[in-house]
Amino acid sequence: MENLRNIIDACVLNNAACQKTVYERFYGYSLKIVFRYIYRYDRAVDVVNDGFVKIFKNMYRFTSDDAISVEQRFMGWIKKIMVNSAIDELRKNNMIAEIGGIPEHVWDVQDKGPQPDQSLLYKELVAVVKQLPPSYRAVFNMIVIDGMSHHEVADHLGISVGTSKSNLSRARTLLQKHIKDMEASEICSI
Amino acid sequence: MQYIDNDMDDLFKKAGENYPLNIDGADWNAVQAKLSDTSDRGPIYPVKKNNRNYLWLLLLLFVPLFFVINTSKKENIKNATGTTPLIEGGNRMADNAVEVPVAGNDEKGSGQLPLSTALNERHAVIKNQADPLNKKENDLNDQKKKLNKENNYVIDNISDDEDHASAPDSKKIAKNNQPGGNVPSRRNNFLHDKNKKSTDNKNIKTSGGKNTAIENANLNESLTEDNILPAANEPIPVDSTTTIKQPKLSGAVSIINTNIDSIKDVSNTDAGTKTDSAKKSESRNKQKRNSDSKRGIYYGIVAGPDVSTIKSQQVRNAGYTIGGIIGYRINRHFAIESGALWDRKKYYTDGEYFDKTGTNIPPSVKVLFLNGNCNMFEFPLAVRYDLNMKKNSFFATMGLTSYIMKKENYDYGADNNGMYYESSRSYRNSGNKLFSNLQLSAGYNFKVSRKLDVRIEPYIKMPVKNIGIGNMPISSKGIYFGIIRNIK
Prior knowledge:
The structure holds two protein chains of two kinds.
Chain A: H1 2-12, H2 16-37, H3 41-57, H4 70-92, H5 116-130, H6 134-145, H7 150-157, H8 161-189
Helix pairs in contact in A: 1-2, 2-3, 2-4, 3-4, 6-8, 7-8
Chain B: H1 2-6, H2 8-18, H3 28-39, H4 62-82, H5 93-99, H6 102-110, H7 115-126, H8 131-161, H9 167-180, H10 186-195, H11 197-205, H12 213-222, H13 225-228, H14 246-270, H15 276-294, E1 296-310, E2 319-329, E3 334-350, E4 365-386, E5 393-416, E6 419-447, E7 452-463, E8 474-487
Antiparallel strand pairs in B: 1-2, 1-8, 2-3, 3-4, 4-5, 5-6, 6-7, 7-8
C-alpha cells in the first residue's frame, strides 16, 4: 500500500498522472456508491466526477499514519465524499422523486463474479432500493448500506434523529412490501 | 429469496457493495477539465475574504455631525452680524427694519425719551438706509411737525380764552409741550402729562372754585377711557381746543391721574422697562407652551438594508429590516421609541464562533465555516434626542434591542475525521434574548407636512449578548428609511 500513499502524496502536488490513476482505480467503487442514491445513471456519473474534483482539491486533508490501512481509510474517505456529493445533488433537486425506469445497459449482467445468480439478486435489490422515495432512499442507503449512525444522517440531511429513524422504518416497510410483491409475481410466473 | 427473511439489512449491504454496474463510463478528461477550471479559483474549501463592501454605510453616521457643525457655524456668523450697527449694509435691511421699534419704546411708555429725540439719534443711522426705512422716517418727521403745529395752536387758544388765573397753567402746558415739540401718541401724551402731574395739580388747585358739579359730571362722561385712549390711528387728542378748558381741568385731572396710574402699570410691563423676573417668567411660560406643543405620540414604518457580521468577519450578503415603530415625545428634545421589526439577517462566520452545543451536530464533527441567515422579530427600546425641533432636524438615538429568533438556516462546511463535507441545517424558535444588542443611530428628519415626517437613520447594533442557536455575537449596520406620522 506504499504505492497508494505515494500516489496520494503526488496527487496533493497536483500530479495529473497520479490523479488519473486514482480516478480510474476508484471510479467503479465511487459510481456504485453514488448510483444507489442518484436515480439516473448519467447524473450519477456527473456526481462522481464532481466528487473526484473535490477529492483532488482536498487531497491534502487526507491523513493516514498507519501504512497498512491507507487503502481502507482512503476508500472510506472517498465514500463519505461521494455520499455527501450525492446528497447535495438530491437536495439540489429538493428530494423530488424521478419517474421512468432504469435502462438495462447500466447493469453489468455479465458479471464475472463466482455466483451469477447472486449478482442478479443484488441487481434486483438495488433496483428496489432505487424505487424508494429519495428521502427514504437516502436514509436507508446511509444507515443500512454505508453504515452511518442516525446522528450522522441527521447532520448530513439536516433532519432530526427522529425523522431519520422514522424514514428508515418506512423504507424498510416499503422494501419488504416490494420484495413480497416480487415473490408473488415469481410464483405466479411459475 | 431466503436471505431476506434471515437478515435483510445484511443482504442489502452486500447488494449495495457488489451489485453489477456498468463502470465503463469513466471520463478522466471531464474531471481534468473541471480541475483546471477550479484550480484558478483556488481550493473549494472556502477562503476567508475581507469583504468590506458595506462599511461605507458607517460614513453616513458622520453626515449629521457635518451638518451640525455647519449649522452652528452659520448661527455664529448670524449672531455676530446681528449685533453690528444698523448701518452695516443694505442686505441687513430686513433686520434693521425690525429693530426700528426700539425707538418705539420711548413712544410706548417711558416718556423719558420722546420720539423726536429718538428719531434724531437714529436719523444719522437711518438716513443711509434704503427706501422703506427712509419712508418711515419721513412719516415720523411729518407727524412730528404736525404735532408741533397743533400743540402751538392749543396753547394759543388757551392763552386767548382763559383768564389770568389759568395763565400760569397754560404756560406750563405750553412749556412742557415745547421741548419735545411733538407727542407721538395718546398714551405718550398722558405719560408726558403725568410728569407734570404735581405742578398741574397745584396749578389747578390754585385756580379757584370755578369747577362746578355739572361740569365735573360732563367731564366724567366725556373723559371715558375710550375717549382718553383712542385707537392708535386716531389723531392726537390735544388738538381738541374745546376739551382743554380751565374749568374742566380739575375734574379731568383726577380721572387722568387714575388712568395714568393704570397706564403706567401697563406701560411698565409692555414696554422696554420690563423687569428681569417678568422676562424670565414669560420665557419660562413660552418654553412650557412650546414643550407642551411638542409633546405627543408618533408612529410610522421603517425599512432598510441590514448588514450583519460576526466579529467583523466578511460579509457575503445583505439582509433587510422592516417594521413599525411608535414613540412618545416627552419634550422638545427627548422622545422614547419602541417598535416591532422583522429582520432577515445574513452572516458568515468561522466555526470557532459557532457554539454547536445546542445543535445536533456530532461532537466528532468540526465545523469549519457557516453561511447563515435568520428570520427574527426585533423589539427596540430607545431614547431619541433631537438636536433642534426645526422643520428638518438631526437626531440621535440610543437603546437596546430584544430578539425573538424564529428560524435559522445554516450552510456549513465541516471536517469529520479528516473528511471535508458540506451540509445544511435549519433551526426553529431557537430562543429569545432580552436586550441583547446595543443600538446607536443618528439620522435626519425631514418634515414633509405638519403631521408627516420622513427620516433617514443610519444605525449600528453592537452585541451585548450572543444570540441564535450557535450563540454568536452578531453585530449589524444599516440604514432605516422611515415614514412617521405625528399624532397630537
